[in-house]
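Note to self: user wants both folds in one dump. Writing first protein now.
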Amino acid sequence: MRASVRRSYSRPEPAAPKEETPLSSDILKTLPLAFVMIAGPQIISSFFFATSENWRGTSLAYATGALITITVFVTVAYFIARGVKGGGGDSSDKSSGHVIDVVVLVLLVVAAVYLFLKRKTAEPPKWMGRLQTATPKFAFTLGLLLLGVFPTDIISSFSVGASISRDGHPWTYTLPFILLTVFLVALPGLLVAVLGKRAAVFLPKVRDWMNNNSWVVSEIVIVLFIVITANSLASG
């Protein structure tokens, strides 16, 4: 007589489904502001540097200056917003999150109005004509200033840093925005490096188009971010 041995196997519990990370949506919504960052004298300067004799040195120095100043402003905004949120409970975090959203919303509206009012006077400054003979040191300083103290750049950098912090994400979530902005700043120089003299044919045309139409692109992007921020504020 065979004894029937019943072996009990413990079934492993199914792994809990991973929550969908908000990485893609929360990062992607900040990326369009990179175009606002470079619209105007910022990208026009890149074109001038790219078509100068010392284009390698000046383009690299300009992009480096931009990288430093954008990183600083975004980081400062991130930690200011983080300090506003503080270490309170859920209700406190929710309330401070609303405050951050309101501040970002107001700043974006100011940026949109500023761009609209300046649209007819958005001509390249006279000093841009000297950029093709500029030194790397001058280009570096210009990158620090144009991508840092320009009103729309300050607002865009603050909006990105505050938005990422408000959503409770680590500082590294701001890096795609920073790197995309720097890539756009360096793009004219990269095109010259890849295409050589052929780039000199169409870069001036692109430069002129950007000078005439960049404010329209910026307005569209800002309005889009305003809608996203307002929706976040309404959904609470």
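First done. Writing the second protein, which came from a different request thread.
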Amino acid sequence: MEEKMRALEWLVQFANMNLYDLGPGDKAKLLVESEEFLFSRSEGFTMQRTSPTFGQKKKVVLSDEWVAKMDELPHRDSPGYWAIIVESQEIIRKRLEKFIMPNERVRKPLKEVSIWLFWNETFKLSIIPHTRSREDYIDLKLFRLFDNLPHSSIQKCPGCEKFFLNASMRKKKYCSSRCMWRVNAKKLRMADPEGYKKRQAELMRKKYREKQAQKRGVTIEKVIIQKRSSRKKEK
């Protein structure tokens, strides 16, 4: 579960990235991580079920391994690989937008997937979807990672317009308290512009007094008294 959430967090962060504004170091880091999280050679996870053995009363555990594979990719330092990164981000963004729509039932047929079946002497059955379509590959990856998670596990913050994971499963609208504060401040500013200006001015005065009190090593009340005294002298 921890590995699954780590992969999901990376994909969500990747969907939020501005690929055209990355520095050389961030771009190099993304290229390396993409081989682990986006185009890993093995997309496997194991589902176990209990089945009766023939002619016996006891039960044995058989496991099915589901692995998504795609055709060979260009070298990660090539322009072709970067073009695939950009295209993949666009596909992921579109899928996540679909996922967050309320009461949206997502059903997506996979058109370019072939299923290969393998078995051996231990009766381990491997089902390997092989696709030449990047869109189908990403759909398989996302549905595998979101499998059995509630609809509320992926959200889009109205403050910063970025996707975020709600791992706590509690009702959560914003990605952070900072975004919540920004949205609420905007609502207050639009509802009562004059009142908002007065509250902001009072807040700035309070912060200034606290800073002066800390600097001088005195209480805020003493700073206010000294300020009033200086004003009387000026008069």
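Dump finished. Worth passing along: Strands lie at 45-52, 59-66, 69-70, 113-118, 125-131, 154-156, 163-165.
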